[in-house]
């Protein structure tokens, strides 16, 4: 992997994991020291992240990690609602039995909140890649990664967060996909994403780092 790609991946990971928090001001020189590189690959990474709406250029002041707005969070989850069922349908129609059997790796989970975020990201990424459609999988994995930031920011304010129930929802979906029951699988994945929106958006409203709606 090229140096500029390494810097981009590291910086993007730091933003999505909230090691660089929403609203943080960052400067090229500070980031160059952080990643032990020159400013050029940092600048290139920041420009890529600007296109992904994760940072904003502040003239003569550096950059700011974009705050999370409720409207952007809603847009992200609605886009996922459109895309992830399509990936599930493609997987059911085209994935070999071996690929669907591999989803059994996600039937169980044990660990803390941070490990659950990693487990959840890996499961939904596996659904994306099972589709066999690289463009859809790439777009969905990007959405899933960005959703990690929403979950981390909202987790302390999510009421009745129950990993056991969420894993049970995953297991239901896995079983429907392995039966190649498209109708049931689509119903389950849509309900799962809708429930995520119902949990996350109210929790975000209770968090101080969330900015006002775009049209406010």
Percent in strands: 5-15%
Q: What integer is the average pLDDT?
A: 89
- In sequence order, what are the helices and strands, one letter per element? HEHHEEEHHHHHHE
Number of strands: 5
Give the count of helical stretches: 9
CATH architecture of the largest domain, please? Up-down Bundle
N-to-C CA distance:
42 Å
Low-confidence stretches: none
Report on the biggest sheet: 3 strands, antiparallel
Lateral strand order in the biggest sheet: 1-3-2
Shape: globular
Structural class: mainly alpha
Q: What is the highest CATH level, the class of the largest domain?
A: Mainly Alpha
| Cα radius of gyration in angstroms | 18 Å
Describe the structure.
The protein has 9 helices and 5 strands, in the order αβααβββααααααβ. About 65% of the residues lie in helices and about 5% in strands. The protein has helices at about 5-15, 30-35, 40-50, 70-95, 95-100, 115-130, 135-155, 165-180, 180-205; strands spanning about 25, 55-60, 60-65, 70, 210. It has about 220 residues and is mainly alpha-helical. The protein folds into 2 domains: about 5-65, Arc Repressor Mutant, subunit A; about 70-205, Four Helix Bundle (Hemerythrin (Met), subunit A), CATH 1.20.120. The protein starts with a helix and ends in a 5-residue tail after the last strand. It is globular. The strands form 2 sheets. Strands 1-3-2 form a 3-stranded antiparallel beta sheet. Strands 4-5 form a two-stranded parallel ribbon.
């Amino acid at each position: 992997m090229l140096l500029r790609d390494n810097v981009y991946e590291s910086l993007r990971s730091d933003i999505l994991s909230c090691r660089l928090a929403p609203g943080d001001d960052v400067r090229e020189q500070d980031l160059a020291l952080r990643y032990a590189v020159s400013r050029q690959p940092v600048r290139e990474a920041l420009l890529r992240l600007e296109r992904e709406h994760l940072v904003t250029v502040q003239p003569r002041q550096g950059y700011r990690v974009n705050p999370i707005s409720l409207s952007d969070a809603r847009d992200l989850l609605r886009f996922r609602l459109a895309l992830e069922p399509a990936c599930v349908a493609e997987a059911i129609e085209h994935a070999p039995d071996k690929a669907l059997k591999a989803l059994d790796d996600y039937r169980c989970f044990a660990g803390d909140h941070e490990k659950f975020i990693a487990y959840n990201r890996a499961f939904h990424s596996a659904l994306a890649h099972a589709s066999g459609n690289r463009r859809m999988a790439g777009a969905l994995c990007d959405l899933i990664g960005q959703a990690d930031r929403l979950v981390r920011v909202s987790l302390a304010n999510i009421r009745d967060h129950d990993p056991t129930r969420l894993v049970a929802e995953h297991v239901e979906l896995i079983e429907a996909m392995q039966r190649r029951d498209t109708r049931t699988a689509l119903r389950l994945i849509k309900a799962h994403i809708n429930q995520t929106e119902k949990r996350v958006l109210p929790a975000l409203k209770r968090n101080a780092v969330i900015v006002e709606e775009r049209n406010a």
